């Protein structure tokens, strides 16, 4: 059953959208009474002429909320903590709202020329028009995505699909990226279980590289690069972690991160909005399975699981071009190379983008297969996993 969708406005004019799957969910009519003033305008994007990529400059974000105590969490329902939150309702299932401290915004404070630019060809900038949204997976502050029910995970997927379609239709938006940062090691500033959606006014560098590779592959073979990679991983089999009717999770052959998994649909689809109801149902189950395995990847000496910090992001087709050669996939990656050690992007990675991974991808896949539900979460004899002391 599709979630009920209700769009409202916060005190400063930002949109908030409730996605309710609970039959008993009340009408969403609560008003935001906070004296917020005017919403934050966008900053600017500046061209890095050395590599042809854009950098957002958003000085107002330096004042954003940073790891507040639980009773001041801005993502909990209003009335739960000591201060009114971003969500006026007393409870919610899944909620999406425009970020109060956005990197990209539909409102601009920048004056620009008739071509939409500021400056010359090499020192070029533009208003950072677009949209940044927050996706709250649940009203339960102590929960995490891996703890959701399949029904609630499906509601999040429907919210992602809804926002992909709506934001991708905006003329200023070139790329929609749905992602989640989990864990303070990743850099989260709010502990409440949530993700974000960035609607960029350009195609970011990794997305542009994927599109270029996919375009060249299609020109040579007439086939989709993503489909051929999935077929090759399925044939090799040794890096496949989960395989169902609609989805396959595998560790990529050239994984860059100490823990990295890709999740791809069996059918060729460009984005989340193109998934069928059956594919979304299966995705809810498979994604929860995958996240729960990741949370069993490392274990302490007492056998307890170590919550894995991760970034999970959906790579989708650009909004207005290259859709015929693009193929949807999720990338989940972690900086944790052992229970107490992080992978730092030092000289080679940060300086020239030359990646080195200390963990063979086949070892990552073997460990994730080993910790499947019902198999156990201990350290296996064939996989080198450091145990926390």
Give the tags:
389 residues; alpha+beta; HIT family, subunit A; 2 domains; eleven-stranded antiparallel β-sheet; three-stranded antiparallel β-sheet
Please specify the SSE layout and strand pairing.
Elements lengths: L3 E6 L5 E6 L23 E5 L4 E5 L36 E5 L26 E3 L3 E6 L13 H19 L6 E8 L11 E7 L4 H17 L3 H12 L3 E4 L3 E4 L8 E7 L11 H18 L15 E6 L13 E6 L1 E3 L2 E2 L4 H6 L8 H10 L19
Helix pairs in contact: 1-4
What would you say this structure looks like, in words?
With 389 residues, the chain is α+β, with helices and mostly antiparallel strands. The protein folds into two domains: 4-202, 2-Layer Sandwich (HIT family, subunit A), CATH 3.30.428; 207-370, HIT family, subunit A. The chain is 21% helix and 21% strand. It is built from six helices and 16 strands. It has helices spanning 150-168, 205-221, 225-236, 277-294, 347-352, 361-370; strands at 4-9, 15-20, 44-48, 53-57, 94-98, 125-127, 131-136, 175-182, 194-200, 240-243, 247-250, 259-265, 310-315, 329-334, 336-338, 341-342. Strands 1-2-5-7-9-8-13-14-12-11-10 form an eleven-stranded antiparallel β-sheet, sandwiched between helices. Strands 4-3-6 form a three-stranded antiparallel β-sheet, with no helix packed on it. Strand 1 and strand 2 (15-20) form a beta hairpin. Helix 1 (150-168) packs across helix 4 (277-294). The longest helix has 19 residues, at 150-168. Mean pLDDT is 92; it is low at 379-385. Zn(2+) binds at residues 73, 76, 141, 192. It catalyses: alpha-D-galactose 1-phosphate + UDP-alpha-D-glucose = alpha-D-glucose 1-phosphate + UDP-alpha-D-galactose. One of its GO terms (molecular function) is UDP-glucose:hexose-1-phosphate uridylyltransferase activity. This is Galactose-1-phosphate uridylyltransferase. Pathway: Carbohydrate metabolism; galactose metabolism.
């Amino acid at each position: 059953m599709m979630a009920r969708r209700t769009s409202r406005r916060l005190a400063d004019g930002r949109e908030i959208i409730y996605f309710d799957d609970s039959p008993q969910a009340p009408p969403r009519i609560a008003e935001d009474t906070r004296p917020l003033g005017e919403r934050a305008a966008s900053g600017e994007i500046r061209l890095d002429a050395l590599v042809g990529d854009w950098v957002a400059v958003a000085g107002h974000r330096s004042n954003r909320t940073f790891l507040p105590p639980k009773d001041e969490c801005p993502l909990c329902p209003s009335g739960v903590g000591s201060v009114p939150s971003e969500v006026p309702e007393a409870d919610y299932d899944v909620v999406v709202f425009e970020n109060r401290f956005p990197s990209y915004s539909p409102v601009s404070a920048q004056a620009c020329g008739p071509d939409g630019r500021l400056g010359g060809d090499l020192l070029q900038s533009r208003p950072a028009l677009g949209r940044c949204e927050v996706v709250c997976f649940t009203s339960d502050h102590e929960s995490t995505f891996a703890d959701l029910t399949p029904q609630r995970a499906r509601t999040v997927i429907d919210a992602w699909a809804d926002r992909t379609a709506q934001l991708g239709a905006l003329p200023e938006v070139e790329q929609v990226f749905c992602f989640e940062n989990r864990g303070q090691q990743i850099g989260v500033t709010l502990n409440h279980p949530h993700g974000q959606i960035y609607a960029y006014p350009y195609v970011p560098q990794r997305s542009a590289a994927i599109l270029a590779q996919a375009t060249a592959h299609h020109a040579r073979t007439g086939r989709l690069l993503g489909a051929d990679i999935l077929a090759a991983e399925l044939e090799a089999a040794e890096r496949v972690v989960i395989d169902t009717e609609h989805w396959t999770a595998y560790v990529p052959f050239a994984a860059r991160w100490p823990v990295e998994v890709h999740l791809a649909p069996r059918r060729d689809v460009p984005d989340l909005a193109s998934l069928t109801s059956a594919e979304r149902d299966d995705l809810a189950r498979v994604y929860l399975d995958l996240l729960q395995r990741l949370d069993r990847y490392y274990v302490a000496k007492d056998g307890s699981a170590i919550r894995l910090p991760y970034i999970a992001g959906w790579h989708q087709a650009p909004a207005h071009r290259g859709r015929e050669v693009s193929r949807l996939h999720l990338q989940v990656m972690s900086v944790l190379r052992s229970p107490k050690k992080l992978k730092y992007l030092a000289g080679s990675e940060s300086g020239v983008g030359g990646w080195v991974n200390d963990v063979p991808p086949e070892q990552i896949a073997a460990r994730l297969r080993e910790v499947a539900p019902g198999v156990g979460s201990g350290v296996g004899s064939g996989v080198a996993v450091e145990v926390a002391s």
